[in-house]
């Protein structure tokens, strides 16, 4: 019986190992052929060009993913943090419950639905507002991502803020600080490792998302610009994998993009571990 | 008189926890509030800087006069009031920041930004709280790395840094060992030269040792209030006598 539990435990370990090894094995050959710097820093992605030499620069995808994630964080973190403070400290019980419930629902909406709504509402709106030929831009993707990461940011930071001992807040008020000063200068710093964890989780969610943003970002391999159609690392793989010929360099290069994405996410998870460890040492 | 309380009544929802309290607190003296657990002494203390406002089920009637103003006047600026009436809590509660930032928190909140001025305030507050010599070489270290007794003196220093008139102390030594308690008692007797101290204590010996005035609370009522020596030598109320001679409590 014990053996069965052990085997079940092995399943996830096994899959992680298989996927990691496979990504490296499949991702490295293209780097070898094209050259690491030509690929990572190349600005032109024309994998199937027939009249000219095909080009495999994935810098547009890497930068788009970084820009998109950074933009989503810049919008999502302030909104999420203020919501978390409101729910944890200021909101009447009924309002807090209503917000918590909607945040949970927001987390449960499939990403394809976000994409659909972004496509029919947000994209035309951006096109009209900024008078563009197409509203399917990096900006649309950033807004969709910002909304998608709200649940992780709100939930995790609210838990951290609620866990701050009331004695800290009492001491601050007794010194003549207002409630708002207390939240920003005592509660938030006291909950900083939890808040940092929330932000890192948000980054992880944003950089790994594909479905919602493929529908709103125009899917063109441009260097990133707020009002340009762009293609992310995730969306490049999702959209091209189906027609890249088996055994071609194009297909290998897509695996290389997967490897780069994988390394980014590993880095983010390492960051998360670091914050969680710091939290344990504080308590 | 620095504080004058008139007919103060307080309810926790339907529970009438303070009944018609009237008392005067003299300036630059130590006034002790004693009584058995649940008698209302801590509740009363927290009405004096309106910390009871934080509890939504509390309802208060009556007047508390301080500096010619009724602090329960709707026009009262509560943050300004709390700047003048500081508080030290039962459990030492330094912020999870450095020693320096703990002390500088109050002054910064009230708008002092200049580095040199903050340095001077921090040094003075720590000296007044008799902890400067122990922490002067590690002002940047976390306050939570200090011992329990040091943390409580740090909290006193933090309260002094905003230069209050009155210091409210809510059983500030109850969680400390006898040596730390002794140091804080010594400190409090020093503090009365500059500040008025109102302290809640469950420890009658402590009230005898350091207070000038003593008020005995029972079941939400102020039973007896007089000089500490009078209250403990010749109490006028039978209930006070029973309590101080240890017949209940």
Draw up the topology in text.
The complex is a heterodimer of chains A (283) and B (249).
Chain A (H helix, E strand, L loop, with lengths): L1 H33 L1 H6 L3 E2 L8 E2 L2 H32 L2 H16 L2 H20 L7 H25 L3 H9 L4 H12 L1 H17 L2 H4 L18 H8 L8 H34 L1
Antiparallel strand pairs in A: 1-2
Helix pairs in contact in A: 1-12, 3-6, 3-9, 4-6, 5-6, 6-9, 7-8, 9-12, 11-12
Chain B lengths: L2 E10 L2 E11 L4 E5 L6 H7 L10 E9 L2 E2 L7 H7 E4 L10 H11 L5 H14 L3 H4 L12 H13 L5 E5 L7 H14 L4 E5 L3 H7 L2 E6 L2 E7 H6 L4 H7 L5
Parallel strand pairs in B: 3-8, 3-9, 6-7, 7-8
Antiparallel strand pairs in B: 1-2, 1-4, 4-5, 9-10
In short:
Chain A is mostly helical. Helix content of chain A is 76%, strand content 1%.
Features:
heterodimer, A: 283 residues, mainly alpha, MetI-like fold, 12 helices, 1% strand, B: 249 residues, alpha/beta, 6-stranded mixed sheet, 4-stranded antiparallel sheet, 10 helices, 36% helix
Tell me the strand order in the biggest sheet of chain A.
Answer: 1-2
Q: Mean of residue pLDDT of chain A?
A: 93
Shape of chain A: globular
Distance between the termini of chain A: 38 Å
CATH superfamily of chain A: MetI-like
- The CATH class of chain A turns out to be Mainly Alpha
> Taking Cα atoms only, what radius of gyration of chain B do you get, to the nearest Å?
18 Å
* Topology order of chain B in helix (H) and strand (E) letters: EEEHEEHEHHHHEHEHEEHH
List the strand order in the largest sheet of chain B: 6-7-8-3-9-10
Structural class of chain B: alpha/beta
3D shape of chain B: globular
Which parts of chain A are unreliable, with pLDDT below 50 for 5 consecutive residues or more?
A: none
Number of β-strand runs of chain B? 10
- How many domains comprise the coordinates of chain A? 1
């Amino acid at each position: 019986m014990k053996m069965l539990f052990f085997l079940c435990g092995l399943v996830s370990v096994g899959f992680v190992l298989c996927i990691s090894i496979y990504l490296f094995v499949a991702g490295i050959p293209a780097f070898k052929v094209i050259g690491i710097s030509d690929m990572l820093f190349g600005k032109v992605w024309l994998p199937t060009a027939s009249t000219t030499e095909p080009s495999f620069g994935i810098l547009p995808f890497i930068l788009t993913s970084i820009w998109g994630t950074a933009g989503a964080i810049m919008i999502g973190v302030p909104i999420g943090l203020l919501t978390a403070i409101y729910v944890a400290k200021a909101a009447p019980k009924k309002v807090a419950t209503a917000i918590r419930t909607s945040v949970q629902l927001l987390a449960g909406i499939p990403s394809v639905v976000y994409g659909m709504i972004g496509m029919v509402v947000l994209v035309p709106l951006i096109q009209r507002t900024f008078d563009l030929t197409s509203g399917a831009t990096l900006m649309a993707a950033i807004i969709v991502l910002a909304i998608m990461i709200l649940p992780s940011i709100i939930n995790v930071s609210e838990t951290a803020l609620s866990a701050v001992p009331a004695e800290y807040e009492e001491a601050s008020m007794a010194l003549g600080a207002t409630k708002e000063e207390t939240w920003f200068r005592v509660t938030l710093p006291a909950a900083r490792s939890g808040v940092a964890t929330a932000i890192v989780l948000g980054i992880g969610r944003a950089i790994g998302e594909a479905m919602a943003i493929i529908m709103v970002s125009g899917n063109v391999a441009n260097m990133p610009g707020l009002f340009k159609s762009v293609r992310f690392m995730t969306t490049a793989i999702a959209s091209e994998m189906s027609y890249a010929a088996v055994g071609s360099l194009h297909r290998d290069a897509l695996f290389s993009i997967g490897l780069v994405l994988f390394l980014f996410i590993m880095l983010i998870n390492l960051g998360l571990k670091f914050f969680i460890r710091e939290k344990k040492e504080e308590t | 008189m620095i504080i004058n309380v008139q007919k103060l009544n307080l309810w926790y929802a339907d529970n009438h926890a303070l009944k018609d309290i009237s008392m005067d607190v003299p300036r630059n003296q130590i006034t002790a509030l004693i009584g058995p657990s649940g008698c209302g002494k801590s509740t009363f203390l927290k009405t004096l800087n309106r910390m009871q406002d934080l509890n939504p089920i509390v309802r208060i009637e009556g007047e508390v006069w301080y500096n010619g103003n009724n602090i329960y006047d709707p026009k009262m600026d509560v943050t300004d009031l709390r700047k003048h009436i500081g508080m030290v809590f039962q459990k030492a509660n330094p912020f999870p920041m450095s020693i320096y930032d703990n002390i500088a928190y109050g002054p910064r909140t009230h708008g002092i930004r200049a580095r040199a001025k903050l340095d001077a305030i921090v040094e003075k507050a720590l000296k007044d709280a008799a902890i400067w010599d122990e922490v002067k070489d590690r002002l940047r270290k976390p306050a939570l790395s200090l011992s329990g007794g040091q943390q409580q003196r740090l909290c006193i220093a933090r309260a002094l840094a905003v230069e209050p008139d009155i210091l409210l102390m809510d059983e500030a030594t109850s969680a400390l060992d006898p040596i730390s308690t002794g140091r804080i008692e010594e400190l409090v007797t020093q503090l009365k030269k500059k500040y008025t101290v109102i302290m809640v204590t469950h420890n009658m010996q402590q009230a005898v040792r350091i207070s000038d005035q003593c008020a005995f609370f029972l079941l939400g009522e102020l039973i007896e209030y007089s000089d500490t020596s009078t209250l403990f030598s010749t109490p006028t109320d039978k209930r006070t006598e029973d309590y101080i001679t240890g017949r209940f409590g």
